[in-house]
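Changelog entry: the 20 kDa chaperonin, chloroplastic record was regenerated in this release. Current contents:
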Amino acid sequence: MAATQLTASPVTVSARSLSSLEGLRASSSKFGTLKPGTLKHSQFRSLVVRAASVVAPKYTSIKPLGDRVLVKIKEAEEKTMGGILLPSTAQSKPQGGEVIAVGEGRTIGKNKIDITIPTGAQIIYSKYAGTEVEFNDVKHLILKEDDIVGLLETEDIKDLKPLNDRVFIKVAEAEEKTAGGLLLTETTKEKPSIGTVIAVGPGTLDEEGKVQPLSISTGSTVLYSKYAGNDFKGKDGSNYIALRASDVMAILS
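Regenerated structure tokens:
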């Protein structure tokens, strides 16, 4: 089979059009917080936005290598839970999809470790993981098995089954008042870093490729690193977070 040829064309936005970005509200992103007025024409000659790599129509299949997995990306939600239509600019980037193909696995020490995730499985993956690929006019993602957070067999994130060393936590409610009794608004409430563990992955692999169970158990109340993991909101409005066991700092009792 011929090697897969991937091509991508950058989309260039001129500095003149950056002025339209100046009025945007401050927003958090992978790269930190962008504040209004921080973009200056003298600092940016052009802004390059790279689209998904496009596989030429002459290729009929993609075979991921090693511990990589090919995922068909789930379409973005077009409505809120209340039934309100969302414009494309307001639709959140999907973090889920269906496994289409898997690699042959990896080697740890002298042991060959196969990928345990079957094709057809519905998964949730880390928000910024992998490389996006457009194949047969459908968006896919090629990512490492370790970037898969867990399996999701229903439409509700609360049913997530974490993989590897991941821990799935229901986040505690934010404090409504200060210690002095003052009511806090939604914007001033501090993001909680405490929650209850509702599911744990099977564990990590040691140097011989054997699974070492996690020391954290379901039902534990834990304190975790404030900016770790992937945040989710359940259908019941509860907040959840999936993170690595190493990001859990303490067990509370």
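The two ends are 58 Å apart (CA to CA).
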